[in-house]
Design brief:
Blueprint (H helix, E strand, L loop, with lengths): L2 E4 L17 E5 L4 H10 L4 E4 L3 H10 L4 E4 L7 E2 L2 E2 L11 H4 L3 E5 L2 H8 L5 E5 L4 H10 L5 E5 L8 H14 L10 H13 L3 H4 L4 H7 L6 H6 L9 E3 L5 E3 L1
This protein binds D-malate.
């Protein structure tokens, strides 16, 4: 298989025993981790370092007081033991004024887990609708032969918005793979996207993540923002040291 999609976090466990040394993993967490990473880099952040636990973020801050702390638990900015994180996980917070030149240590629920599940891959890219075109162009230009699209999902389940973004990516890149070599998951994602693409916001009625954000007046605008296509022309790569920067 040259192109394949993983839809649910339940599939991450199998990645540990898989040889990914020749594979480029493209991780989507549309609502909102990878959209926020793309926005932060677009607005001049030097790097984003995703960490699994709040305690890891706090440790890093001790050794590097210059970093900003970002992320969410239950969708909202983290406040713990008297420490308020500088940023939540809304891409709208990551303005040039706040992030230019900064390194952001970020801990989110599913996004971080998906990025970390790809450890051992030849390359790990953080993608979203916002930087989909640039990421697809990068894959094409570098003649990447093995691509695994990893959807971060919601909890243990598939997330519709990630599935649709995976389908959009497959639509752009699958031509280069001569069709026959693609996994059935590629066709499933592509068909879902083809059906939804004329009204992506309408499709969000069936997204658990979108419904949660839309119900919160402070976060509802994130949904429309994260569905915008190609507003950030950049490729976000997580290197082996776990740091995400523009390629
Ligand atoms: C996650 O990583 O689970 C998220 O992106 C959740 C969110 O930002 O609401």
């Amino acid at each position: 298989m040259n192109l394949e999609v993983l839809f649910t976090p339940a599939e991450f466990a199998a990645l540990a025993s898989r040889d990914l040394s020749g594979t480029v993993c493209v991780v989507f967490d549309v609502l909102r981790a990878t959209s926020t990473i793309a926005t932060a880099l677009h607005n001049g952040a030097k790097a984003v370092i995703p960490v699994a636990e709040i305690s890891e973020a706090l440790e890093l801050k001790k050794s590097r007081p210059d970093v900003l702390l970002g992320g969410e638990r239950n969708g909202v900015r983290i406040s713990t033991g008297g420490i308020d994180f500088d940023l939540g996980n809304s891409p709208r917070e990551y303005t040039p004024t706040k992030v230019r030149g900064k390194t952001i240590v970020s801990t989110t629920t599913n996004g971080t887990r998906a990025l970390r599940a790809c450890a051992g891959a030849k390359m790990i890219l953080a993608a979203s609708f916002l930087n989909l075109g640039a990421t697809a162009e990068f894959l094409r230009r570098n003649k990447i032969g093995l691509i695994l699209i990893v959807c971060a999902g919601t909890g243990e389940n598939a997330a519709l918005e990630d599935t649709l973004a995976a389908g959009a990516m497959c639509e752009v890149v699958s031509g280069g793979f001569g069709g026959g070599a693609n996994a059935a998951s590629v066709k499933a994602a592509q068909q879902a996207y083809a059906k939804a693409k004329s009204n992506l916001s309408g499709a969000m009625r069936d997204s658990e993540n979108a419904r949660r954000l839309l119900a919160n007046p402070d976060l509802r605008d994130d949904v429309a923002l994260c569905l915008q296509r190609d507003t950030c022309w950049l490729v976000a790569r997580m290197k082996t040291d776990g740091v995400i920067q523009c390629v």
